[in-house]
Amino acid sequence: MDQRYLLGNEAIALACLESPVGFVSGYPGTPSSEVIEILAAHPDRSAYVEWSVNEKVAFENALAAAWCGVRSLVTMKHVGLNVAADPLMTSAYTGVTGGFVIMSADDPFAHSSQNEQDSRMYAKFAKIPCFDPSTLQEAHDMVRDAFALSEELGLPVLFRPTTRICHSKSNVTVGPVLPYSGKGEFHKDPRQYVVIPAHTRILHRKLNEKQPVVRKRISESGYNQYHFRGKRAIIASGIAAAYVQEIIPPDVSFMKIGAYPIDEEWLAGFVRKHQEVIVVEELFPVVEEAVREVAGTVTIFGKKSGHAPYEGELSPESVARIMESCGFSPAVHYTSVQPVPDLPPRPPILCAGCMHRPVFYAIKKIFRDGIYPSDIGCYTLGLQLGAVDTTICMGASITVGSGFSHAGEERDIVATIGDSTFLHTGIPGLLNAVYNGANMTLVILDNRTTAMTGHQPNPNTGCTVCGGLSPQISLEALCRACGVPHVETVDPYDMVMLTATLKTAKSLPGVKVVVAKQPCVITARRAGVRRGTYRVDPDICTGCGTCIKFGCPAIEQQDEKAWISDLCSGCAVCAQICPAGAIGREGSR
Amino acid sequence: MRDSYDIMIVGIGGQGTILASNIIGEACILEGRTVRGAETHGMAQRGGSVESHVRIDGKFGPLIAPGSADLLIGFDLLEGLRYSHFLRPDGKIVLSERLVIPTSVYVQGLAIPTPEDLIKKLSRLNLTLIRAEEVAKEAGSILASNVVMLGAASHQIPLDESSLVHAVQRLVPKKTIEINTRAFTLGRNVGPGC
User: Fold this and answer.
1) Contacts of residue B110 in chain A, CB cutoff 8 Å?
2) Whether B107 and A381 lie within 8 Å, measured CB to CB
3) Per-residue pLDDT band at B42 (split at 50, 70, 90)
4) Which of A118, A258, A414, A527 could form a disulfide with A283 if both were Cys (CB 3.0 to 4.6 A apart)?
């Protein structure tokens, strides 16, 4: 046993190696991504690890491994589970022989997400057990136990950490990494693995018959606990339980829920010994609904009584406010303080030299009155440049574009999507747009990586997460195979070619694809690419503001003139758009 | 009850706030103490404002409540001011003199903040300013500014100097151990309480 200071995702990854896991797949998504990166890079790893093309693909791969008796992990963020929901629902029917853990990382407050959905609902929906850690040590221990529980019950187990587990740190006690030496072997059993109606009706009944055993084993797991201290109680789940423990007074009973489904009799026994109970949990009132079902005459405070929020994340001070609003006095009082008002914001921004910026600039110039559906990635930040009109989910830039086209919208439609997102769920949308005769331009922002989540490789990168080389795929050939008649590739740092290519696309009917190709400026720098830097000649600069409005973080304004800082990565786009010709390569003037 | 020593480390994505907080966490492990931390990852890293919470002797959640931090270490004047409400009334702030103007100021045509204005707004606090970049250059690399800041704040941190130095040496890249050790010491020599 070893004490280490670990990131939550590191503790989760190490628990997998202690189990030991044999098969790991996933698709990157904040806050889940580090688990696979850490597993792939671990010197003592013996498991198979892959970045899959999307979450459904990842899920089905891992499920098959679990059908072969191999302990398997699949990782994704909460919205990724929507993509994988189809196999999820029926995998509970077929069950597994090797332990199968589904890590779906939730993001209360949507720090890096498009919604605040609650993965615990999926576990309930699919009728499978769910673990919801309140500390990093618990996250570690739960993953280890989840593999064993999955094998014992023959069911997939959902593991649902939140951002404040995945991306927080703590001292964690970890065990030794064990080698995985098993070999998957599939035993044919059509009644188990071929879900035709005749089979699936029986499988569904068997799944329902398992539920009392599931409840009993969850009760015995030790992750749901309580302490009697008085006539009033607080019940909390996940990270909120840690916030409650920090401020709960000594005369208030405490129950922590870390595993589902909750045994009703056990819960009722606790709740009914109190007069007033507060339920504290993030997002959906999963625990609160269970508590209300068994409460009888006990007064329950929570979301449904208006005392706790349905949205956002909790914190020690927000939990203290909830307690105060219910007439409970927290043991710690926080003074109400306000941030300094009116400070200029510093939101995330596309990097200096990012290839997305000139593409958005050119799109806005060529398709002045266009509509710009976009997608999920760094380029969603194109919103700041006025070049992103919609995002909904992975791959939806293309489908929203074709939907606009068929809805009768007559303006030009220019969709933008990254290479990883295009491969994730973009291809069916493109195929559909061509098949049904949409009129739109698609710009694939091809930076050769999954940049947003931390530069994970994808099939377009040419290598795998474990460093193996993979065949180079051709985005152009893929698009042509979907039936796109006009596909052109362009260097987005070349403003003349970029605008000319977009103009050509604009002039043609049907679905047109422009692939703007340039490596992510961060990966390029890491690979040793040095393009030099650019500077503004203050004698020539007219202070017109064209380069300032371009929005590059390397371009500042000093004394009404532009000035380029050391953030410059030498893309030279500003030099091409400056109407006065005042910007040149350092030293060339 | 709260019995942890709570530190906020704030700056701009890419300035090394996470390494600085990792060094404190590692030093806690070396001393056999409990510790909790929270970080900004993902989208917020792209040149955005970032915050790390570190709670020495923390036993519960990782988040520090506004108005309750014992120490604020800031790598940028504007970011120091942005998170200054996290400090308790008698808390200390150790702040780099560096200021990066956010691009939003130019693009949206907002008033450009000056170092003088920002420092003036912080004057009600127990503030120490550090020329972190100059000290880091003296140590051998401007990239060691974060370790300079940690050294400068280290007199306030209830951990042994030797644990922090040991943690620096464990966590920085091998080639930079010497520079970073020097950065820590030079920072410590210019910090408040030395």
Assistant:
1) 344
2) no
3) low
4) A118
Three-state SS annotation for A481-550: HCCCCEEEEECCCCHHHHHHHHHHHHHCCCEEEEEEECCCHHHHHHCCCCCCCEEECCCCCCCCCHHHHH
Please give the model's pTM, rounded to 2 decimal places: 0.97
Start and end residues for every CATH 3.30.70.20 domain found in chain A: 534-585
Q: Which domain, by its residues, includes B75?
A: 5-131+153-172
Quick check: A167 contacting B, CB < 8 Å? yes
Query: In chain A, which residues have their Cβ closer than 8 Å to the Cβ of B13?
Result: 348
Counting runs of H as helices and runs of E as strands, what totals does chain B give? 8, 6
Q: Given an 8 Å threshold on Cβ–Cβ distance, is B46 in contact with A239? A: no
B151 touches chain A (CB under 8 A): no
Q: pLDDT digit string (tens) for A76-123? A: 999 999 999 999 999 999 999 999 999 999 999 999 999 999 999 999
Radius of gyration of chain A from Cα atoms? 27
Distance, CA of A216 to CA of A218 (rounded, Å): 5
Q: Are A143 and A98 in contact (CB under 8 A)?
A: no
Give the CATH class of A356-526: alpha beta
Question: What mean pLDDT, rounded, does chain A reach?
Answer: 97
A290 closest CA partner among A311, A313, A259: A259
| CA neighbor of A443 nearest in space, from A369, A499, A404, A405 | A499
Q: Indicate yes or no: CB of A112 within 8 angstroms of CB of B44.
A: yes
Scan for tokens 């050769």, then name that residue.
A448
Contact B54, B9 (CB under 8 A): yes
The per-residue pLDDT for range A424-459, each reduced to its tens digit, is 999 999 999 999 999 999 999 999 999 999 999 999
Residues of A in contact with B93 (CB under 8 A): none
**pLDDT on residue B1:** 47
Residue B31 located in a structural domain = yes
Neighbour-count burial for A4-25, b at 16+ CB within 10 Å, e otherwise: ebbbbbbbbbbbbbbbbbbbbb
A378 vs B46, B61, B105: nearest CB: B46
Over the stretch A231-249, which tens digit does the pLDDT of each residue have?
Answer: 999 999 999 999 999 999 9
Percent of chain A with pLDDT over 90: 97
Range A225-325 classified under CATH 3.40.50.920: yes
Reported as a single tens digit per residue, the pLDDT across A14-73 is 999 999 999 999 999 999 999 999 999 999 999 999 999 999 999 999 999 999 999 999
Is a pLDDT exceeding 80 seen at residue B2?
no
Q: For residue B98, give how far its alpha carbon lies from the nearest alpha carbon of chain A (Å).
A: 14
Is the complex ipTM more than 0.90? yes
pLDDT band for B107, please (50, 70, 90 cuts).
confident
CATH fold for domain A2-220:
Rossmann fold (3.40.50)
Closest CA in chain B for residue A381? B43
**Where are the domain boundaries for CATH 3.40.50.920 in chain A?**
225-325
Å between B161 CA and nearest CA of chain A = 18
Q: How far is it, in rounded angstroms, from Cα A346 to Cα B49?
A: 6
* Cβ atoms of residues A537 and A466 within 8 Å: no
The H or E element that residue A405 is part of is helix A396-406
